[in-house]
Structures are given as structure tokens and as C-alpha cells.
Phosphoenolpyruvate-protein phosphotransferase
Amino acid sequence: RRRALLAESTGPGRTADGTPVALLLNVGEGDPRKAGAHDSEGVGLLRTEFLFLGQAEPPTVAEQTAAYTSLFEAFAGRVVTVRTLDAGSDKPLSFVETGQEDNPALGMRGFRTSRVHPGLLTEQLSAIAAASLETSARVRVMAPMVSTPDEAAEFAALARRAGLTEVGVMIEVPGAALLADRLLPRVDFVSIGTNDLAQYTMAADRTLGALPDLLDPWQPALLRLVETVGAVGERSGRSVGVCGEAAADPLLALVLVGLGSTSLSMSAPALSAVRHALALHTRDECRRLAELAVAASSAEQAREAVRAAAHPET
Ligand code: PEP
Ligand code: MG
């Protein structure tokens, strides 16, 4: 039994009945080789802000290309999902002029900054495209804070024009989740960012420490939005990942898979517990756990219902 458990805690993610669920890493600043050494199937979220934070000027295309190239080398043969610059709000950058904003989380942030600084995004896309030519990594690109199907289409057009072939967007605004049926056909994949999706669903500032109960990713309202996106993903054959903190909770990971997530991206320490939880449950069991969570009236109720019904070794 011990040996069986050890075997379950390495290699690709699978449910007990063999449904693949890619286990990916959230990556930011740090040594790419160290990130590449973890037992993951690739990168589900490359937070590229680290290249831009604390700089007086944006990095040049050549500097960016070099940084992306070393990251791709560390993940040769694996998928790397590069998120374009998520400036503004909780990630302010000195050279991105947003003007005076009373509510920066509702202002010029993420993909929206390309309205005022289009060059930042197009330069970044060309650097990612240039680096992708030098690698065996499967490079995907996605935009943060996309709110409408039109914005998704606009980003997809820009990325394809730069020469990138696998294009997606993050779902972290309730409006984008609610229109998943119109949005998903315009991209190749989506990835749900539960940190911001919780903030905007529950109207609770993620940078305030005072509202953890509202920001709890077990909130059934948040899970209903994941369900909406997951159902469209299953119908349309588009992959639906989750790259917010929710994916690192093994019990919640089961629920996310039950709601239609095909990949889960998290920080390295969470990988083996999530892999183990998946191996203990079939896809149908995940679906039943998801039904329990979505039917609850509170985060506590959802968590307790799933804990009581899941395999005790989760
Ligand atoms: C998220 O919002 O869930 C997410 C993954 O992106 P970030 O935390 O970088 O905003
Ligand atoms: Mg986000």
C-alpha cells in the first residue's frame, strides 16, 4: 500500500479511472531550472510581471526573449502557458500610466492596459513568439482580466498575428464566465483565475486581509461560475484550466475536476497532495463531490459536505 501511494504521488495527474488532469505549476520570479525540476507536466501560469516590476522602463524585446527562452528550455517538451503582463491594481508598474484611480481593481489593469499602452502587449507577444521558435516546449499564451468575448477575440487576433498558435484567456471576471458560451469559441483554451474571480464575484478586495470568509474559494457562488465555464468547455472540447489558489486545495481540486477542469495549476508544494487526491477518486466521484459543493449555501457547508463524502485519505 505504501509503495502504491508513493507511485501515485509522481507522474502525470489522473483520476482513479484514468482521466488525465494535467498538473501544472504557477511560476514567477526565480531560477527557471529549479521550477523545471519539479514533477509537473508544465507551467499553467507564468506570471510575467517579475520581468517588469521595479523597472523604470519596460524590458526590451531582446531582454524579454532571453528570459522566456531560458524558461522554455527548463520546460523542454512540456507545456508552458505564458500570461501576458497583468499590470495595475495589486500589481502596479511605474511606467504604466493609469491616471488617478479611486478603484484600481476596477480600472486600467490586465488586458485593459493595452487600451492605453498597446505597444507593451505587442512587444511582449513578439518576444514570446521569438522565444517559442527556439524551443521544444509547447508554448501557449493567455491574457489576464478579459471581460468580454470581444476582448478575447481581440487578444486572440493580436497573438496570432504575432505568430503564436495556441491562444487563450483567463476567466477572472464574472462577466466573462457568464458569457462562456460566446467567449470560448473565440480562443483555444481558458484558465480560471479564482483569486480575482472570487474578488469580483463577492465584491471583496483581495488585498484586504479582513474579508477571508468572502474570498474563500469554496464560496458556492464562485463554484457556480466555474460550473458555467466547465460545462461550456466540456460541450465545446475547449480545455478549461484553473490557475488560482483554489487548485492547490486537494479537496477543492476534486470539485474543480468535477465541474469540468481539465488542468490544475498551483505552486510546487501542492502538486503531490493534489495528485494523490485525484488518484483516489474517479471522474464520476469528482462530479458527485462537485454537485454537493455547488448545492451548498455557504463555503463552510460546501467544504464540510465534500470532506465528509471524499475518500478519507484525501
Ligand atoms: C488569479 O487571479 O486567480 C490568478 C491566478 O492571477 P493573479 O493571482 O496573478 O491575479
Ligand atoms: Mg488574477
About this structure: DSSP finds 14 helices and eight strands in the chain. The first helix runs from residue 2 to 8. The longest strand covers residues 22-27. The chain has a mean pLDDT of 95.
